[in-house]
Automatic annotation (TrEMBL):
<keyword id="KW-0472">Membrane</keyword>
<protein>
    <submittedName>
        <fullName>Uncharacterized protein</fullName>
    </submittedName>
</protein>
<keyword id="KW-1133">Transmembrane helix</keyword>
<feature type="transmembrane region" description="Helical">
    <location>
        <begin position="33"/>
        <end position="52"/>
    </location>
</feature>
<feature type="compositionally biased region" description="Acidic residues">
    <location>
        <begin position="1"/>
        <end position="18"/>
    </location>
</feature>
<feature type="region of interest" description="Disordered">
    <location>
        <begin position="1"/>
        <end position="26"/>
    </location>
</feature>
<keyword id="KW-0812">Transmembrane</keyword>
<feature type="transmembrane region" description="Helical">
    <location>
        <begin position="80"/>
        <end position="99"/>
    </location>
</feature>
Length: 118
């Protein structure tokens, strides 16, 4: 490695760099608005389902007594409350993805501007 190459031989073959494979679909696509709209509908349905499940999971009971105020008790059903929490959690995840889809749909760039960044 101590030898320095100062001249190229006339018969030397210069290898061309390999061509990059064709790029896949771009992240920036306007059709992502449709995906975000579908997720918004799913979020609304999940929130409605969560409220319905929560109301089914909390049951208030009244036991009447003669001459006294009724004894009021609250019973919690874990399966309904857990389903409500799961539905809200899924709605939050979909909301985050809907925001991401909208940002990717809005940030579409013309091909000329996208090529100049490279």
């Amino acid at each position: 490695m101590t030898e320095a190459v100062t001249e190229q031989e006339p018969d030397a073959v210069v290898e061309e760099p390999e061509q990059a494979p064709p790029a896949g679909p771009s992240l920036h696509q306007p059709k992502r608005w449709l995906i975000a709209a579908g997720e918004a509908v799913a979020i609304v349905l999940l929130v409605i389902a969560a409220v319905w499940c929560w109301n089914r999971g909390v049951v208030r009971l009244e036991y009447p007594f003669e001459g006294r105020e009724p004894l009021i008790s609250t019973r919690y059903h874990g399966n309904w409350l857990g389903t409500a929490v799961g539905a809200v959690t899924l709605a939050v995840v979909l909301a985050l993805d809907a925001v991401r889809q909208v940002l990717l749909a809005v940030r579409t760039r013309p091909q000329k501007a996208a090529d100049s960044d490279m």
